[in-house]
Design a protein that fits this description.
Elements: E1 2-6, H1 10-25, E2 34-39, E3 43-45, E4 59-61, H2 63-68, E5 72-75, E6 77-82, E7 87-91, E8 97-101, E9 104-107, E10 111-113, H3 121-124, E11 125-126, H4 131-143, E12 155-159, H5 163-180, E13 187-192, H6 202-215, E14 218-222, E15 226-230, E16 233-236, E17 241-243, E18 246-249, E19 253-255, E20 272-273, E21 286-288, E22 293-294, H7 308-327, E23 340-344, E24 350-354, E25 359-363, H8 364-378, H9 386-391
Parallel strand pairs: 1-2, 1-9, 2-5, 9-21, 11-18, 12-13, 12-18, 13-14, 20-22
Antiparallel strand pairs: 3-4, 6-7, 7-8, 10-19, 15-16, 16-17, 23-24, 24-25
Helix pairs in contact: 1-7
Amino acid sequence: MRLVVIGAGFAGMYAALSAARLRDIHGVSPEALEIALIAPESTLVVRPRLYEPNPETLTAPLLDVLKAIDVVYVQGTAEAIDAAAREVSIAAPGGRRTRLAYDRLVVATGSRLFRPSIPGLAEYGFSVDSLDDAVALDRHLHGLAGRPAGNGRDTVVVAGGGFTGIEAATEMPARLRAILGPDARPRVVIVERNPVIAPDMGETARPVIENALKRIGVETWLGVGVASLDQSGVTLSGGERIAAETVIWAAGMRAAPLTAQIPAERDSFGRLLVDRDLRVPSAAGIFATGDAARAACDDAGNYALMSCQHATRMGAFAGNNAAAELLGVPTAPYHQAAYVTCLDLGEAGALFTRGWDRTIEMVGDQAKKTKREINTAWIYPPLAERAAALASADPERVTDL
C-alpha cells in the first residue's frame, strides 16, 4: 500500500508526520504501508515570516525529519493527478518525468497569491507570497540605497489591507531606515478596496490596528484599489497617483492550480470541498487539506482559513485519516474550536486575539513577545528524532491553543 502526500508546506508536513504516527501505533512496517511526500525541495518555507528581512534564511530542513519517521521523499513537482488511474505525474530534476501510483492521496498543495490582470502588476509589483518573491523584494529594497532620493524612492505602497498587507506594511518603516539610514523619512501607504482597514479582524480589534498604523506613520487609503502600475508608481481606481518605486501586492489568495484537476466541487478560492474527515467525496481515495481544502471547523458555521494555524492541524487530520482508511481503523473527524490571531504591527508591537469574534488578549510588547515565539519556535518542524517527531503529530493536540 502507498499513501502519497503532495506538498511540503505546513499541511503536507503534518500529513506525513501524522500518517507515520498512525502507522507506528498499529505496528505496521514502512514496507507494508509506504508513505511518500512529493515536493520540489525537502524544506519547509516559513511563509508567515516572509515579510521579514533576510528571507533567504526563513526555511527549515525536512529531509532528516522525514528519514527519522520512514517517509520517502520524492523530489519533483506534481504536474498532474489522474484520479481514475490513481497516479500522480511528476516533473523530476533534470527534466525527467515519472509517475507515482497511490492507494490514498493527500493534496496539500497550498495556495498562491491572486494576481489579477492589472496593467503593470506583473512587471512592477512585488510580493511576499513565496521565498523567491520575498528574496526579490529584499534585494530591491537594498538596491534603493543606490538610487537618488525623491521620485518615490522612499515610498512603499502596499495593495491590500488584510493580515499579510498589514504585516508587510508595518515592517517597512524600520526596514527602509535600516537600508537608507536613520535620518530617512520613509512613506508607507496601504491601499484597501474595503471601506475599513483589516476588514476580517472585526470592530474590537480594528481600533488597535488603526492606532498602531498611526503610531508608526503608515497611511491608509480606503475604498480604492490599484488601477495600474508603472516604473514610477501606481494609479488608483479614483484617478489618484502615488509616486513609489516599491509596490507590494497583498490582495488575496487562491488554492494552487493543481486542485482544478480533481473532479470535485470547489469554492470561490479554488479550494476543494471536503467532508469532516477531509475526504474529497467525489474523488475516491483523495483527501485535501490546508489551503487546498474548504473544511468546516465546527458545527457553528466556521470554516478553516488560509493560515498555517489551520493548515497544521488540518494536515494532521488528513494524514491520519488517509492512513486510517488503508489500515482499516476508525478515522477522526477534523475539528478546530480554538482559533487565535497574532498580528505583527512592526515597531508598534503586535495584537493577539482569541476566537472567531477576535477577543483581544494581548497588545503591544507583550503580544510581540508571543509573536516572536510563534514565528521562531511554534511553527517550525519538530526535531529529527523519531519518537518526538511522531508524538508532535497527534491530530488532537496539533495547534491546540
